[in-house]
């Protein structure tokens, strides 16, 4: 029986989590006779684990295979009461479509997760100061929405008080502000769109409480105005290679 072995990535988190060591490091194996891919690994103890198929060239997860705690109540596809695991990968991504070059991908297994504070961004008491409202230094600044993206960008919704104009700020992975926008606007304010009865400068918001971002758009839930704003990202320069 012939097998193809693909590179693997193994990560152990050991801070406050129970110690875990590899007995057999993760392997992604293709059984040519059966025509199937198999994920295998073995730990020296029962531990929480996270298993994924990763594209090393893009550092992105292609398929989230499994997650849970090994032991008597291990969820499928893990085998119960076993530190040694083997289960099938169907060669598909998270959207259940076939991966074109599965041999270029790697198996990543993380075990014994814990957390540690790495960086603090912000904390400036004047970050949402409003010249329009003129709050003093003790204005109750608030953060009402947060969205973190895999590339390291973070979107933060906040404002100076219940009366102050809201703002959305985007930070890079080092905590540098990339952009910010937002001003107070009621339901009649449409930010300059066609038919706007109350034209104002800026993007009108009132008590926004959540934010979501894609490659080309930012979506803000404008709670008090009972509406969702789709905000297009515009770039001064953009090009792609052939």
Question: How would you summarize what this structure contains?
Answer:
With 242 residues, the chain is mainly β.
Structural class by helix and strand composition: mainly beta
Q: Regions with pLDDT < 50 over 5+ consecutive residues?
A: 1-5, 13-17
Tell me the series of helices and strands, N- to C-terminal: EEEEEEEEEEEEEEEEE
User: How are the strands ordered across the major sheet?
Assistant: 1-3-4-7
Mean pLDDT across residues? 78
Percent of residues in helices:
under 10%
Task: Walk me through this protein's architecture.
It is a single chain. The protein folds into 2 domains: about 5-110, Immunoglobulin-like (Sandwich); about 140-230, no CATH class. Strand 3 and strand 4 (about 35-45) form a beta hairpin. It has strands at about 5, 10, 20-30, 35-45, 50-55, 60-70, 85-90, 105-110, 140-150, 155-160, 165-170, 175-180, 185, 205, 210-215, 215-220, 225-230. The chain contains no helices and 17 strands.
